[in-house]
Amino acid sequence: MGRMRKSVTALMLLSTGGFMTVHGDDTKREPPARAEARRASNPRTFKDDRTGVLFYVESDGQHVAAINGGGTILWHRDPFVDAGLKPYRRKERPVISYIGKASDNNVEAMKAEGKKGPFIGLSYNSSQFGLLDVTTGEFTFLGQD
Hints:
By secondary structure, the chain is of the alpha+beta class. It has four helices and ten strands; from the N terminus they run H-E-E-H-E-E-E-E-H-E-H-E-E-E. A four-stranded antiparallel beta sheet has the order 3-4-5-6, with no helix packed on it. The model is unreliable at 1-26 (pLDDT under 50).
């Protein structure tokens, strides 16, 4: 009976936009920052038509994997940590809000610095953004709005 009550409670919270973490018999309400990150970080994918590589943003909103057409993982990275970024705009741990085609201006700026690419664009919910090298997974931070 106790298990059913938790399920009903969890459904009621979810239906009202709340989030809840359930560990065994221990049910806890998530801190607001974590709930915000969960809302912003549904798993995302982007397929680069030029290379055929599929990019998968994990549900934590922080890790990115590159997967080739044969299903082999080419690399798995945490661009925020790898680039040594710091939180911005009171976001404890920003999550990826966009992964997709890089802007032509940003690609041209990278080429001017001698980086050949190919690149894809990546943005965080903190407005920080940059480019990911498709081949290596190296993230180049370009700025924040």
